[in-house]
Amino acid sequence: MMKINEYYRDTAHMHLNGSIASLVPTIMIVIGNLSVLKNNNIMLLTIPFLIYSFISFQIYLFRMRQSIAIRRNLQSSKRTAKSIFDARHLLVLFRNSQSSCLFLYFPDGHLAGQIKKYKGTGLKRFKLSRTYALYNMEDQVQGFFKLTGKKVLKIEVYDNNRTFLGEFEKKSKGFLQDKKELMDQSGKYIGMVEGAKAFMDVHVYDPKNQEVGRLRRGWMPMEWSPLFPEPNTPVLSIRESMSESEKLLRMSFLINEFFVER
């Protein structure tokens, strides 16, 4: 179960690996030039790689310092919610890599769950390359999000028993404008999603136009900063009165927000 300090530690190691990897072409250029070409101007080609390696190493040191400070603060932190569906607020961290993953954290710094591509077996009806799964803190699947459609993007939502719950639909309304709606399992309209593409402030509404969820950046309370040092860490807020199935269906917009649009 990854705590927030481990997230920053792993991020630091990724930058360290990048720093080391960028030295490989530098060494090859130096060795090739000294043994074959013997042209001083060729050595200038090493400068971009050296700059990247230096910057990556500085980021590694910075992230490691953050990880150490967070680990100390975690010692005095108390557990709050026990389930990802119990939380009123979740902090969202997206790791964009070959195996991109969306991490969801409780405000106490403990991992609530994560969303990533589903690589399991036994789902013949699913095209796994376009299927994501929500996992809880114990790495157990809580639900599935299956992307379908091209002109009209649809994200079908299933619970952990593979029961269809409904879907998220995105239709183009024109230049830089999209219509995003939520439907239940019978195709009935149950709400919409609105938000600007330029900055992150996404609202989820019910059929009565009342807000039931929100994802926004730059709102994080100061009391969370000892565990989440980045003030622009996105915060997902969900109405507590909804059932787990209702929350899972509303969370489908996260797939569009992080794995499709950004």
Order of helices and strands: HHHEEEEEEEEEEEEHH
Outline: globular
- Terminal CA distance: 27 Å
* Individual helix count: 5
Lateral arrangement of strands in the main beta sheet = 1-2-3-4-5-6-7-8-9-10-11-12
Radius of gyration: 22 Å
Report the uncertain regions. Answer: none
Helix content: 25-40%
Helix and strand content put the structural class at alpha+beta
β-sheet strand percentage: 25-35%
DSSP strand count: 12
Q: Could you give a short account of the major beta sheet?
A: 12 strands, antiparallel, barrel
Average of the residue pLDDT scores? 89
Key terms for this structure?
262 residues, twelve-stranded antiparallel beta barrel
Quickly describe the structure.
With 262 residues, this protein is of the alpha+beta class. It has helices at 4-21, 23-37, 46-74, 244-250, 253-261; strands at residues 89-95, 101-105, 111-117, 131-136, 141-148, 153-159, 164-174, 177-184, 189-195, 201-205, 211-216, 235-238. Strands 1-2-3-4-5-6-7-8-9-10-11-12 form a twelve-stranded antiparallel barrel.
